[in-house]
Amino acid sequence: MALDFLSSLFKKKPKEEPTPTTPEPMEVEELEEEVESRQENEQITQILERINEIENDIPRIKISIDTLKKQIQELRDDIDRLDKTIKDVMMLYEVISQEINPFKEQMGQENPLTSEIQELRKELEDLKLEIAQIKNDIKVLAGYGVDLDSIIYEVLAEV
Prior knowledge:
Helix content: over 70%
């Protein structure tokens, strides 16, 4: 045992092989990684700041949108009221223009429908007068004792 101990002391120590040390490339890689890490951290920080700004702006934007919606609805209501008012005014204009329009006769001559309506009105008035005359004639005939039933049957048979 002692011999082994002494031989181990006097034995030549094998030279340790130099380990290939490339401290510079390791440091460059570490520096590159550190630079990339810092850049990523800066980007994350910027993104977080922007997110905070957006989160702060959201309530103001929501209030603005609600205000705009309310204004748009008010404008719609105003437009509806104006539309109704314009329709009422147009109806009033039509009524007044039919009664007071000095150019009514000229317009009637220019529009064929108006002239047809005027002709139909005249024919209707003529028919009303004729019916009134027939009623009067029937009353007179009934007063003289004429048999109206037989006359009516004869007229209906001819038709």
